[in-house]
Amino acid sequence: MKQTELIFIPFPIMGHLGPTVEIAKLLAQRDRRFSITIFIMNIPFEFLDSMTKDSDSYSIRFVTLPPVEVSSEAMTSIPLVRDAVHELTRSNSVRLAGFVIDMCCTHMIDLADEFGVPSYLFFPSSAAFLGFLLHLQFLHDYEGLNLDEFKDSNAELEVPSYANSVPGKVFPSVMFDKEVNGAELPLYHMRRFRQVKGIMANTFIELESHAIQSFSGSTVPPVYPVGPILNTRMGFGEDQQNASAIMSWLDDQPPSSVVFLCFGSMGSFGADQIKEIAHGLDHSGHRFLWSLRQPPLKGKMELPSDYENIEEVLPEGFLHRTARIGKVIGWAPQVAVLAHSAVGGFVSHLATWPMYGEQQINAFQMIKDLGLAEEIKIDYNMNSGYIVSACEVENGLRNLMNINSEVRKKKKEMQKISRKVVIDGGSSHFSLGHFIEDMMANIPCEQSSDT
Q1: Is 429 a catalytic residue?
Q2: Which of 53, 161, 405, 434 has the least C-beta neighbours within 10 A?
Q3: One of 16, 107, 340, 349 is an active-site residue; which one?
Q4: What is the pLDDT of residues 119-164, one digit of tens each?
Q5: Quick check: is 49 catalytic?
Q6: Which pairs from 438-446 meet CB under 8 Å and 24+ separation?
């Protein structure tokens, strides 16, 4: 019997690569007919090595492609991926089932077409945001919508995947970035979303029922809610040692008492903002775990790093005053921390402090549509120069950690549901099975007949 081979092409940043590896593992675990190859476009971020070390032998292999220019990674990688797939399929024992591509790698649809196999999209964000992108593209292409009218604006747009109208001030800033031709590249990707055979989304029906139902009867390819897909790795080497110390500290804290502040793999602040956060934490009196990262040097294509001496950037005496109730760290094992019983609140998601990408519109959905978050600054952008005051931080934390808060109650309910949906009988477990059935049915006849 031929081995059924599935090609994954993720975009090589942590928020995309991590979930891609996890969904690949789920597919390989669920159906032993699958062998999966993940092609890694090699750009200069150190975390790629650690991500690819741990395939856990789930019939998954990683192929790291030669380095490419960061500005054009998807286009210049096409010849490299083509050669690698040719090498992979040289043996008659391999049956190519299709390509699973990232939302930022839609150029690879052309390559799937060359090999005569279907392409699928793995969308690592919410179903509502997927609907937003597709609706925006439709309005731009067919109704002449001028996106510039929404820049930094309170003007609202009705979007079928959101229960509330979406204000322009929370649109992703890349839509207006003239240095990268504004919305042209995102619009290109959005048009190509419509050409795939199906879309796996990192969400679940119980969380986003309105958004998922909005796709019914539309021209959007089938959407399979298969989440939550979480990167559960605790790090490697020194990171793993740090993770153990962090988890040990959390073990000593009362249940639901700790606010966790973490701003993503690219999130960092200048000195003035750090001091305001510190004063806000100090005045709130709440227990906290703060992942504080040093910004990269201006103009350098690097991720934030850990401070060598964290005291230098904090207000004088802060660490001493908060020693009994707080811990300031560098890198954090985010998923493991959030799953710990001591954690009762999360800044930047449950007390929203969006930084980049689609985080502003995600914050809007969490607050307005889902009622699962408190606001600190819904339209904050790390490049805006705005300083969130200590008072804003303190008020956001107090609202979030109020034991009678509706947000806290809803969060606990949704946490329970999110654990059930991925196991046998759960909605996402069923949806993943549906995706596998459809994908097997879509394998070209000349391949599928030879088993």
Answers
A1: no
A2: 53
A3: 16
A4: 999 999 999 999 999 999 999 999 999 988 998 899 999 999 999 9
A5: no
A6: 438/197, 438/198, 438/222, 439/6, 439/97, 439/98, 439/118, 439/120, 439/197, 439/198, 440/4, 440/97, 442/98, 442/118, 442/197, 443/4, 443/95, 443/97, 443/98, 443/117, 443/118, 444/116, 444/117
